[in-house]
Every structure is written in C-alpha cells, then in structure tokens.
Write a structure and sequence with these properties.
single chain, mainly alpha, two-stranded antiparallel ribbon, 2 strands, globular
Length: 126
C-alpha cells in the first residue's frame, strides 16, 4: 500500500509524468531514426520505470552480448551523462526537504538506468 501511495505522489509531485513524457518523446525520435531503434526501446523502458519506480528495480538481462555494452558506451556519450546528471540534481533538490527524500531517492535509483539502459530489465523489487 505504501509503494502504491508513493508511486501516485511521485506521479503528481515527483516529476514522474514529466520524466515519462520526456523519455517517450526521445523514444519516438529514436524510432524515426531507424538505426537507433534499440535506444528507443531502452528509452521506453526508462519511461515505464520513471513513471512507477517504487516497488521495482533494475536487473541484468540474461544473454546480453558485447553489442549491448558497445551501444551503452554510445548512449553514455550522447544522452546518458546528461540524463544521469539531471536525475542527480533533481534528487539533491528533492532531498533538501523531509517530504521530498523518498522522491530524491527514487531519482538516485534512476541514475544507473539513465547511464546504462541497454542489457537491463525492470523487475519487481523483492
């Protein structure tokens, strides 16, 4: 019940809806530029994760190869670093208030996903 309440509050006040729309627009751009379709799929995964982060976590996807690692390096250079930086800045800002601490932690939880999205999947938290 607490996770549901935190997710609803995250959606309204924590920026979850704005993040999901941003990742969705990035996914659409990646789908239009056919070569970047894997990045679009990863961006949709991030949109889903940023929309409802409480109660879910990242796990390595089994059977991921070297191509995924190379694509992640390209992702970090083009988009990952500034996405991660924006999550860190938002997380620090939210942690300045007691009420915002859970939302700041959720932003920090999104940093690894923003940096290295390919080869990972979103799974329910234990």
């Amino acid at each position: 019940m607490i996770r549901f309440l935190l997710n609803v509050l995250w959606l309204i006040f924590g920026g979850g809806l704005v993040l999901a729309i941003g990742y969705g627009i990035a996914a659409l751009i990646c789908f239009v530029l056919v070569v970047t379709i894997p990045f679009g799929v990863a961006s949709l995964r991030l949109a889903s994760y940023s929309l409802w982060p409480f109660g879910r976590t990242l796990a390595p996807k089994p059977g991921v190869g070297v191509a995924s690692g190379l694509a992640n390096i390209i992702w970090v250079l083009l988009a990952g670093w500034w996405l991660a930086l924006s999550h860190i800045v938002a997380g620090v800002g939210l942690c300045l208030t007691i009420i915002g601490i859970p939302f700041g932690v959720a932003n920090f939880k999104l940093v690894p996903a923003a940096i290295w999205p390919l080869g990972q999947e979103v799974v329910p938290a234990p």
